[in-house]
Amino acid sequence: VTAASAETLPTLGYALLALLARQPGTGYDLARQLKDPIGLFWEAGHSQIYPQLGRLEELRLVRSRSARGRGPRPTKTYAITLRGVAALRAWVGQPVRRRGGRDELLLKVYASWVAEPAATLQLLREAEAHHAAQLATYLARRAAAQAAGAADAPPSDPRFTDYATLRRGIGHERGRLAWCRWLARRVARAAPGSA
Amino acid sequence: VTAASAETLPTLGYALLALLARQPGTGYDLARQLKDPIGLFWEAGHSQIYPQLGRLEELRLVRSRSARGRGPRPTKTYAITLRGVAALRAWVGQPVRRRGGRDELLLKVYASWVAEPAATLQLLREAEAHHAAQLATYLARRAAAQAAGAADAPPSDPRFTDYATLRRGIGHERGRLAWCRWLARRVARAAPGSA
DNA sequence: ATCTCCATGTAACTCGTTACATGATTTT
DNA sequence: AAAATCATGTAACGAGTTACATGGAGAT
Q1: CA A132 to CA A143: how far, in whole Å?
Q2: In this predicted structure, what is the pLDDT of residue B2?
Q3: A residues 133-192 lying closer than 8 A (beta carbon) to B
Q4: Which of B1, B156, B181, B182 is the most exposed place for a label (fewest CB within 10 A)?
């Protein structure tokens, strides 16, 4: 029974379970988190989240309590159930189904031989700025996590998995940044006067 | 007019233009390429490609010549037009619209504190094997590209942008691999006896 | 004989994005 | 007074995946 429901859940469902496994929250809370903290590796808008929470509740993977809200509708606070934790645990063990890595910047660079060097440089400068900013926020968060002892926590501690994903985020941004800089220098060298 | 059509094209359209800018080909050729060479940064199935080629032709960004094929239908060979090159060039210059980075492995790791260490290790070993294999193929291709002088070609040479994207692919795989290994060691150390 | 490769399309469905719609409380 | 934040939903559309459908040529 659990296996059947686990097979039909989209990845977003597990993303929501992963957040609710840490602490209960409203759909609004989850939407906010899927823009920043784990938003970095799984994004979703609220229009996708509310229906998905409904489906998770039908499957008894989450439970909700309604309270009179400040808006027109009641405010629902969701919490994960034991079945929900079990489904999440089972999913983590299954191998990742890798679907198309889609990277627009790489595609543009691949096509950039048709463009003017100045346009390519502009593109790279923007990407560089973005990655530098992202890196800075990750580094700040890592510093905070380390101060809270996340680096030395056991893998069964959510703070540790926070730290582990942050570490990857930092590596990713650093790698991209270095590549952008290398390419920009390379393009600029070949076409002087388009800085 | 060009600007209007450029705004309505999905990224897949530009991926196809980028491939056709290098050499003409059939829908089948493009589908094959979008599984391996640039498939690494933009994937698509043939059911998405054929209709998109039709739309590109309506917009006069590509042109096709039909020949009696070996199948039931004629075989169409597509080539990019001058308008197509112009549209591609314009697109490269525009900043990337970044949409949700979706990374299932990171999400699983983020949730892995609920799982058994053995399951997490299994997951990491599989990811590690995948990235190692990918890295090996990239390294082989880079060696071939370097032997062909791609590294020293100007940025206006498609061989150079091949090399540049390959370089990023290698950096990406190396970074992931190192992270997987670090995490696996960390998880194994905390839970001995689940190797 | 069967399998793989070449080659093209459509249909059904799921996933994701943008836009529409509503309304109270808190901050500026 | 206006704007941002909290809070929930639906509708329409666009992008992506899986499955259906066909059939010749060459290799095993």
Answers
A1: 17
A2: 44
A3: 154-158, 160-162, 164-165, 167-168, 171-172, 175-176, 178-179, 182-183, 186-187, 190-191
A4: B1
* DSSP of B67-127: E--SSSSPEEEEEE-HHHHHHHHHHHHSPP-------HHHHHHHHGGGS-HHHHHHHHHHH
CA-CA distance, B195 to B181, in Å (whole number)? Answer: 13
Which pLDDT tens digit goes with each residue over A83-113? 999 999 999 999 998 877 899 999 999 999 9
Beta strands in chain A (DSSP E): 25-26, 62-67, 75-80
Query: How many residues are given for chain A?
Result: 195
> Does residue A8 approach strand D to less than 7 Å at its CB?
no
Prediction pTM value: 0.94
**Is A11's CB within 8 Å of B111's CB?**
no
Q: Look at the block and give the residue holding tokens 């530098």.
A: A132
What is the spatial distance between Cα A70 and Cα A195, in angstroms, rounded to a whole number? 53
Task: Look up residue B64 and give its DSSP letter.
Answer: E
Residue A153: how many other CB atoms lie within 10 Å: 18
A76 has which bridge partners?
A66
**DSSP characters for A45-66?**
-HHHHHHHHHHHHHTTSEEEEE
Residue among A9, A35, A92 with most chain B CBs within 10 A, to mutate:
A92
Residue A73 DSSP symbol: S
Those residues whose C-beta lies under 8 Å from the C-beta of residue A118, and which sit 6 or more positions away, are A191, A194
List of residues 6+ apart from B161 with CB closer than 8 A: A109, A110, A111, A112, A113, B155
- The closest alpha carbon to A99, from B40, B108, B173, belongs to B40
A70 strand D contact, CB < 7 Å: yes
Interface test with A, best of B35, B165, B174 (most A CBs within 10 A): B165
Phi-psi region of A152 (alpha: psi -120 to 50; beta: other; left: phi over 0): alpha
- What is the C-alpha separation between B92 and A119, in angstroms, rounded? 7
Which pLDDT belongs to residue A97?
Answer: 87
